[in-house]
């Protein structure tokens, strides 16, 4: 239907009417053939024409829904290239301390959660960041002052440390002498030798593994709330990462006809021997998704796409693996969480089973080790392998990304969130110019996909795009743009948050841009963005989100 305009003609009007037309807008299509437009038409859940308002109005009849955009900006549906929705449901249903600077407010929110939640339920969530104002890590005594009789377990903004109360330590049987996994640490008081209530990296598992499992119903309800939250910030697709078991929570939403998000799913795995089992999970998921009939009306929704592994920690807690010593910790470079040989074996097993591999590597030594492992272990596949975060890199390794065909998956707010806080202290002035090098990656023709790593930074794509374009502290720290030579343009950032994410999946030709023949995923902002885009983007919000031409969110 609507074949004339769908084929690119703007002079011929087709006979059939569209289900929905959107007119009078500032449409940023991310389609190189037609980068800007005024309007588009949707039929059967797909874009069938893109053009001027006059052209598109001619495709309507009395049954067509007409969306007058009033000059507002429309983009393709955003695709988050790195998030943890299934792991972050606690932030939606529990306690969210993100971007709150003071401990007094943290404790107030924790107390409110204690009063709201049923007896015995653990208080979870987090997002606390002691570097914003407090300057020192909180303690178990801080939480004990407001909640004593139920466990409180709150992850920090980096998702690599947890803050707990005494009750949680007791349930976990944690003492200063407890054994922890490689890279983990139980922080102890220098005077008493007792645990302070801060557990780094894998040490947190001593407590989180004791947490009672949610029921299937509880998990489904929490995930549905989180998916709706994602829609509210304009997301129509995510690359989500968690345990292989969690993909079945998404599958339930598909089968209940409640999934309004396209999910390219990555499962955490460090052992090559476990990969074949994940391949069987993929077959099961694909079969049940197809049987649901949902893809016929909504397009691609869910598959088990890739394996996720981790080689180091984060800069903030000195657990990222560096080539040279930390500038503020003599004799310490960090340590890898696994060997290069084990990582290479995992990559080979994953690739041989049709799974690309995503590897968390933040320090320059971690990135280099990961590239070495890809060089030895990767095999050609349909979809590219990738490195996650890449917060600091040895410059020669940028060219290796291109040579090896590796995607750089990066999170803009991770950069701006460090400005004036700890990045210079950790790596010094000379090395900081090698941090968060988005522009250098693009200049070397390395595919770059942007994401949030929620809940470690804001889920909002508009926030992330703003940070990519302006590289300024969201807290007013620092002295204006930080290493602006690494900033990207708005169009580059928009591509990295839409089509780039689609290109890493089987759905590259079905989603990612406002193009005829693709599923009609789009976002309406609350105003028109200026040309060129300026800092007013910080004030913009999502007015409506559509998936396959159906409204899944509208601001009240």
UniProtKB/TrEMBL annotation:
<protein>
    <submittedName>
        <fullName>Amidohydrolase family protein</fullName>
    </submittedName>
</protein>
<dbReference type="InterPro" id="IPR011059">
    <property type="entry name" value="Metal-dep_hydrolase_composite"/>
</dbReference>
<dbReference type="Pfam" id="PF07969">
    <property type="entry name" value="Amidohydro_3"/>
</dbReference>
<feature type="domain" description="Amidohydrolase 3">
    <location>
        <begin position="66"/>
        <end position="553"/>
    </location>
</feature>
<dbReference type="GO" id="GO:0016810">
    <property type="term" value="F:hydrolase activity, acting on carbon-nitrogen (but not peptide) bonds"/>
</dbReference>
<dbReference type="InterPro" id="IPR013108">
    <property type="entry name" value="Amidohydro_3"/>
</dbReference>
<feature type="signal peptide">
    <location>
        <begin position="1"/>
        <end position="16"/>
    </location>
</feature>
<dbReference type="InterPro" id="IPR032466">
    <property type="entry name" value="Metal_Hydrolase"/>
</dbReference>
<keyword id="KW-0732">Signal</keyword>
<dbReference type="InterPro" id="IPR033932">
    <property type="entry name" value="YtcJ-like"/>
</dbReference>
């Amino acid at each position: 239907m609507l074949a004339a305009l769908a084929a690119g003609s703007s002079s011929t009007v087709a006979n059939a009417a569209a289900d929905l037309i959107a007119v009078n807008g500032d449409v940023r299509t991310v389609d190189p053939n037609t980068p800007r437009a005024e309007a588009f038409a949707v039929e059967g859940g797909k874009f069938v024409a893109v053009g001027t308002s006059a052209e598109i109005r001619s495709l309507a009849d009395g049954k067509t829904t007409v969306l007058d955009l009033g000059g507002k900006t429309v983009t393709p549906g955003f695709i988050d290239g790195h998030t943890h929705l299934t792991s972050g449901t606690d932030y939606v249903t529990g306690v969210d301390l993100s971007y709150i600077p003071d401990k007094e407010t943290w404790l107030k929110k924790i107390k409110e959660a204690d009063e709201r939640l049923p007896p015995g339920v653990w208080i979870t969530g987090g997002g606390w960041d002691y570097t914003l104002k407090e300057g020192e890590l909180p303690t178990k005594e801080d939480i004990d002052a407001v909640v004593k009789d139920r466990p409180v377990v709150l992850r920090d903004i980096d998702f690599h440390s947890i803050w707990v109360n005494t009750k949680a330590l007791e349930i976990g049987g944690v003492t200063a002498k407890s054994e922890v996994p490689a890279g983990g640490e139980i922080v102890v008081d220098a005077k008493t030798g007792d645990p302070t209530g801060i557990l780094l990296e894998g040490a947190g598992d001593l407590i989180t593994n004791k947490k009672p499992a949610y029921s299937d119903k509880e998990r489904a309800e929490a995930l549905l709330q989180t998916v709706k939250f994602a829609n509210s910030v304009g997301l129509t697709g995510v690359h989500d990462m968690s345990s292989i078991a969690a993909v079945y929570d998404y599958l339930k939403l598909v089968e209940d006809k409640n999934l309004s998000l396209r999910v390219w799913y990555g499962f955490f795995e460090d052992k090559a021997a476990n990969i074949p089992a994940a391949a069987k999970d993929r077959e099961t998921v694909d079969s049940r998704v197809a049987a649901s009939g949902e893809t016929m009306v909504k397009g691609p929704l869910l598959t088990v796409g890739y394996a996720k592994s981790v080689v180091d920690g984060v800069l903030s807690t000195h657990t990222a693996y560096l080539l040279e010593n930390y500038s503020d910790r003599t004799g310490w470079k960090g340590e890898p969480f696994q060997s290069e040989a084990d990582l290479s074996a995992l990559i080979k097993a994953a690739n041989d089973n049709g799974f690309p591999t995503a590897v968390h590597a933040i320090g320059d030594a971690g990135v280099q080790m990961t590239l070495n492992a890809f060089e030895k272990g990767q095999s050609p596949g349909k979809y590219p392998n990738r490195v996650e975060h890449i917060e600091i890199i040895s410059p020669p390794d940028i060219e290796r990304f291109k040579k090896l065909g590796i995607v750089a998956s990066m999170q803009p707010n991770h950069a701006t969130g460090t400005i004036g806080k700890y990045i210079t202290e950790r790596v010094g002035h000379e090395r900081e110019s090698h941090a968060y090098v988005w522009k250098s990656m693009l200049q070397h023709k390395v595919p770059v996909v942007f994401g949030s790593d929620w809940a470690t930074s804001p889920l909002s794509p508009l926030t992330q795009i703003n940070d990519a374009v302006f590289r300024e502290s969201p807290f007013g720290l620092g002295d204006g743009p930080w290493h602006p030579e690494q900033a990207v343009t708005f169009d580059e950032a928009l591509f990295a948050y839409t089509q780039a994410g689609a290109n890493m999946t089987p759905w590259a030709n079905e989603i990612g841009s406002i193009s005829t023949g693709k599923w009609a995923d789009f976002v309406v902002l609350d105003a028109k963005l200026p040309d060129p885009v300026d800092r007013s983007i910080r004030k913009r919000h999502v007015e409506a989100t559509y998936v396959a031409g159906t409204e899944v969110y509208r601001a009240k």
